[in-house]
Amino acid sequence: MTERETGQDPIGEDARLQSLEQRLKQAHQDEAVRTGAANAGQDANTRLGNRVLAELIGGMVGGALIGWVIDRFAGTSPWALLVMLFLGIVVAFRNIIRISNQRPD
């Protein structure tokens, strides 16, 4: 080494540091995609839509099933089925309205 050189790197931008920063940024993006953190808002909307669909289908199927069982035991075919199906639909819509009135996080 000569007397002028202090043994330290020059203070300019080093291509290796830029390359490292780019690779770290890409690694963070890849990890976010892999763990699902990149689509967190989209997942919340999907869960909400699935919940509304489950409430609607569950209300109708549950009401129809209970009405069918009542019809079988009481011999009132098809009146209990129709009444319970209607009540299941009403309950499903009430639950959907309650879900839609909740404030988002």
Automatic annotation (TrEMBL):
Biological processes annotated in GO: proton transmembrane transport
Segments traversing the membrane: 52-70, 76-97
A single GO cellular-component term on record: proton-transporting ATP synthase complex
Xref: Pfam families: ATPase_gene1 (PF09527)
This protein's UniProt keywords: Hydrogen ion transport, Ion transport, Membrane, Transmembrane, Transmembrane helix, Transport
Highest taxon, organism lineage: Bacteria
Similarity comment text for this entry: Belongs to the bacterial AtpI family.
Function: A possible function for this protein is to guide the assembly of the membrane sector of the ATPase enzyme complex.
Protein name per UniProt: ATP synthase protein I
Lineage of source species: Bacteria, Pseudomonadati, Pseudomonadota, Alphaproteobacteria, Sphingomonadales
